[in-house]
Amino acid sequence: SPTDSPVTLKILQNWVPKISHYFDKEHYTYAGHQIVIQESIEHFGAVVWPGALALSQYLESNQEQFNLKDKKVLEIGAGTGLVSIVACILGAYVTATDLPEVLENLSFNISKNTRDMNTHKPEVRKLVWGEGLNEDFPVSTYRYDFILASDVVYHHTALEALLATMAYFCQPGTVLLWANKFRFSTDYEFLEKVSNIFDTTILAEFPESNVKLLKATTRKN
């Protein structure tokens, strides 16, 4: 069946070339909307990585398979907010989360790009992987249809906490969509750990960018 093998894609040039006086702004178009992203040099989380482009593009092109309209979506490690903005355009109730030092730029990008849209108002919250999850996001009240993660595997000290966070939020019925550039053996080791915990499918590969896009769901006992 077609689901057995990943589709091979390339990241399209979805950004709009703009004569801009600011070197720190990137212009993209997804789902018919122009998105302007302000990057910040100080933080890893404030640059648009290829996994975010791959995931945004995939969500836009596969709305029948992954219909985000009126769904509850949590993005972990949201960075500049591009993926959360795209999910919002596609009609989701979005909660974008990241480390405290990234939130100001994240909030700025999300509010700037969604304020004039007729969409659910996205929420931006602090989430440090593996910390305070029960207190800040008790499972009884916070259930998500989709967890989105892109380029979250680069900071190799945080991988246990990242895996614990994925496991915490990925309840029965939740779909985790994770896109990442695979560069190091540690990336593949993390993939193996994800595959041990969840039912995983590689949905798409972007070989030119070394990006893989995975779907993970809780294992049926």
TrEMBL record:
<dbReference type="Pfam" id="PF10294">
    <property type="entry name" value="Methyltransf_16"/>
</dbReference>
<keyword id="KW-0808">Transferase</keyword>
<dbReference type="InterPro" id="IPR019410">
    <property type="entry name" value="Methyltransf_16"/>
</dbReference>
<dbReference type="GO" id="GO:0032259">
    <property type="term" value="P:methylation"/>
</dbReference>
<keyword id="KW-0949">S-adenosyl-L-methionine</keyword>
<keyword id="KW-0489">Methyltransferase</keyword>
<dbReference type="InterPro" id="IPR029063">
    <property type="entry name" value="SAM-dependent_MTases_sf"/>
</dbReference>
<protein>
    <submittedName>
        <fullName>MT21C methyltransferase</fullName>
    </submittedName>
</protein>
<dbReference type="GO" id="GO:0008168">
    <property type="term" value="F:methyltransferase activity"/>
</dbReference>
